[in-house]
């Protein structure tokens, strides 16, 4: 097999030129300072000691330069930028007072405030200012342990927790001890349809002492919860519609302590006859709006008469689904409640349609709900006989309820959204 010939290479291709040692790109003086001496071709003398020449040159240069004597350390004045001056360039908020910063933060939403509070200690404090958290809407949220405690300490005044799922316990032991004597600033609280245990509800209500309006609709309550509720001496609106666990003791606590109550909703709470009797005998005369519908045969006529005589200032009364309501009791209601503006007697089947026309004597009456009592062929005739009264215009009660109609972004006319 024939071997392959190796190509010849030009070994002289990278050889330097003859004058390469003379083609220097550095000045001789610079090379001399580096300890290198440039030799000329004509120089046949013996090599000199370049290091000695270098030392001599450096010595001469040192003499020519005017070197100052070293200054003592104590006489040196270092001028350094202050920390405040450096922080001003990186953080312009550092020169602003807290009041101005809070005013600026007021334009942020709750999500941005939460994120900003994690940047530094100052913002952590300022972002928790109660001015920035006047209202909060957590409808249908699922809260973690201690979440409600952190919400309350921020000074929220309007708090909507409708259909919220609470953990059990709602607060850890450490936070419970820390907030032992804490009192929240909440004025308007909506807990309707929330998922919360009775003992956790009692703990939550123990932090409420400034409530004006409260809704516990469809919750399970007991006397301990009621004892905490009545500590809010300024409470004027209470919604307990469809709440379970109410008994004679609970009703006695409510009627004995809430003397400023103006709106009360106890619709379909399954109160027994003794509890209803206590309610009618001890309810504060200040009440103006009352819903006790759904009592069926448990509410006695004599108790209703006692109630209307004790509370003559009632403006809205709903006793729908009261099967025991008689015609004479209906007339007693018209006789004593001269300030009535709204009356609901739906499905109280002892009341006849022609009896409803007696409400003409109520000069201030605006709404009459009498569903299932007025036949369809008589509805137009009754409406013509009561021209200034809206007959069967709204089948739902609005007494003490936080939300009315399609407005779901406010409770008791207080906005809950940002």
TrEMBL record:
<dbReference type="InterPro" id="IPR001810">
    <property type="entry name" value="F-box_dom"/>
</dbReference>
<dbReference type="InterPro" id="IPR032675">
    <property type="entry name" value="LRR_dom_sf"/>
</dbReference>
<dbReference type="Pfam" id="PF12937">
    <property type="entry name" value="F-box-like"/>
</dbReference>
<protein>
    <submittedName>
        <fullName>Uncharacterized protein</fullName>
    </submittedName>
</protein>
<dbReference type="InterPro" id="IPR036047">
    <property type="entry name" value="F-box-like_dom_sf"/>
</dbReference>
């Amino acid at each position: 097999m024939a071997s392959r010939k190796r190509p010849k290479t030009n070994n002289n291709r990278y050889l330097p030129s003859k004058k390469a040692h003379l083609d220097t790109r550095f000045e001789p003086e610079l090379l001399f300072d580096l300890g290198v001496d440039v030799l000329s071709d004509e120089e046949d003398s013996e090599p000199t000691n370049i290091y000695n020449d270098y030392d001599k040159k450096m010595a001469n240069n040192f003499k020519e330069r005017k070197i100052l004597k070293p200054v003592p350390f104590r006489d040196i004045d270092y001028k350094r930028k202050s920390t405040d001056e450096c922080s001003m360039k990186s953080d312009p908020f550092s020169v602003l007072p807290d009041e101005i910063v809070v005013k600026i933060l007021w334009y942020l939403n709750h999500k941005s405030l939460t994120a900003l509070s994690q940047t530094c200690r100052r913002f952590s404090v300022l972002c928790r200012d109660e001015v920035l958290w006047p209202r909060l809407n957590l409808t249908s949220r699922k809260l973690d342990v201690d979440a409600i405690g952190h919400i309350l300490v921020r000074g929220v005044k309007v708090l909507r927790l409708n259909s919220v799922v609470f953990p059990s316990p709602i607060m850890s032991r450490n936070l419970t001890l820390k907030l032992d004597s804490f009192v929240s600033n909440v004025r308007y609280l909506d807990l309707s349809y929330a998922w919360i245990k009775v003992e956790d509800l009692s703990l939550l209500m123990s932090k409420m002492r400034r409530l004006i309006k409260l809704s516990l609709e469809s919750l399970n309550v007991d006397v301990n919860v009621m004892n905490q509720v009545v500590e809010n001496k300024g409470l004027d609106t209470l919604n307990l519609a469809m709440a379970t666990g109410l008994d004679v003791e609970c009703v006695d606590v409510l009627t004995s302590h809430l003397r400023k109550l103006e709106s009360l909703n106890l619709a379909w709470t399954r109160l027994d006859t003794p509890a209803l009797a206590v309610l009618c005998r001890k309810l504060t005369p200040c009440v103006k709006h009352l819903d006790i519908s759904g009592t069926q045969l448990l509410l006695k006529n004599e108790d209703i008469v006692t109630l209307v005589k004790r509370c003559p200032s009632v403006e809205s009364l709903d006793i729908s689904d009261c099967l025991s309501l008689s015609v004479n009791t209906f007339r007693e209601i018209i006789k004593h409640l001269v300030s009535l503006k709204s009356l609901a007697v739906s499905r109280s089947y002892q009341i006849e349609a022609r009896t409803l026309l007696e409400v003409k004597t109520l000069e201030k009456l605006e709404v009459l709900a009498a569903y299932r009592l007025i036949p369809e062929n008589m509805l137009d005739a009754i409406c013509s006989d009561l021209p200034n009264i809206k007959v069967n215009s709204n089948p739902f009660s609005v007494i003490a309820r936080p939300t009315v109609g399609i407005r779901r972004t406010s409770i008791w006319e207080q906005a809950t959204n940002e």
